[in-house]
Structures are given as structure tokens and as C-alpha cells.
User: Fold Class II aldolase/adducin family protein from Pararoseomonas baculiformis.
Amino acid sequence: MLENAGKVLRISPMRERVSPAEWQARIDCAASYRLVAHYGMADMMANHISVRVPGEDNAFLINPYGMMYEEITASSLIKVDLSGAILDKPDYGDFDFGINRAGYVIHSAIHGAKHELDCVIHTHTWPGMAVSSLQCGLLPLTQTAMRFTNISYHDYEGVVLNLDEQERLIRNLGDNNAMILRNHGLLTVGRTVGEAFNALHRLELSCKAQLAAMACNTPLVQVPQPVLDATFQNYQPNVRRPYGVMEWPALLRMLDRLDPSYAE
Assistant:
């Protein structure tokens, strides 16, 4: 049960209905929703974070459309297949939550095509939306932004409701772990939840720093291309430990101190 502003949202527990591996995936997925909310990157109940169900390559977990990010728990997540069919969900009491169409189209495209990836995160933050509307896109102005020197872009085609856009989404993402959806927002992916969240957090910081620098209306310092290339390479998986390995357990400890209900 979740208690929020005096109202009780009754959610039946799912732990005994799923495998231990799926339950852990649910905990990590719910944690990522709480963290997105904690860092001010949520858009009320809009947007989505999805996590592939271990051992079920064609199934993933996604948020029920109607719950705030700060409410999401491991039990509240809905399990769907790549066709959008709901495979399992809890009893929500007075509510019969389902999934959002646009979220399904974006997330199922990536889970269906990128089997090496387990997590997809999409946001509508004001810095992300602002940079997505700039013709220049994301600029490598800071060390953090240089991690995304070769970031992907996908042109705006309207609300993502049509399945025929999936092929273009996948083609534009390519082998990158981050993509700017033009006039829309940000998207990151990862082999783990911690990896995808780390990319989102750093991409969000890069957007904020760029907007702050551009707002000063003064010439920007340009970094030489060889330095940009070398810095970008230093961020690549083959030269460093995977993102999230150290950060994710620390973030979970922080959540446990703040509000451990995400793991219910």
C-alpha cells in the first residue's frame, strides 16, 4: 500500500508471483523512477522507464499510466510483451491502470531490436527539451558533455503513436547509448538500469550547463577537436569500468535512507 496526501493506493504485492530475478529487476526499475523524481527529471506521470525481464527476452516492465514517479514500487510495474499485450500486473484497488501507447511504441522498439540492452529511459525535462529544440543540438562545451560528442538524433514526427516510426528510431539510435529526440526530449539506454540512469544523469547535466553558458551571451571557449576526440574515447566502455557499477549501489543506499517503499 502507498499512502500519499492522506489517500491510500492499494496495490497487491507481486513478490511471490514472480521469479527472484524478475523481482530484482522490478526493484531496480522502481528505484530508477524514484531517482528520476528525486533529481527533478520527472514529468508528473508522463514518460517511461522500462527494464527487460530476465530470462524473458520479449517481455519488459513499464510504469502504470496514472501513477506519479514518486509512487512507483516494484509491485506496481506492469509486465508487457513486445506486441503491447499485458502479461501481468497487480490489483490496483480502485484503479485499473494500463500502459501508455507512446511509451510502448518507443520502448518496445528498442527492446525488440537491441537484445543486449536491458533498460530504456525517456524524459521531458526542461533542459532536455530546450536543447532538443536547438539547431546546434548538444555542444561539447564541458568535460561531461564530451562523453556525448557522437550523440544520436531523431527528428520529430509527432507524438510517437505509429509503429512505422520504430524502424527510424532504431536506425537513428545506432550503437549509441544516448539520443536526443528533436523538439521532444532525451533518451538513454543501458545494459543495466544503473548504466542507463548514469547516462541520463550526465546528459541532463550537460544540457543544463550548455543552456547556462549560452545564456551568458559571451563567446564560448572552443576545445580543439583532438582533445574532444581523446576525451570522448576516455568515456568509452572498452577503456573504463561499466557505468553504474559503483554508482548504482550508492544510489540504492540513498533511496533506502530516504524512502525504502520503492522495493515493496
Remarks:
- Residues 57 and 117 are 10 Å apart (CA to CA).
- The radius of gyration is 18 Å.
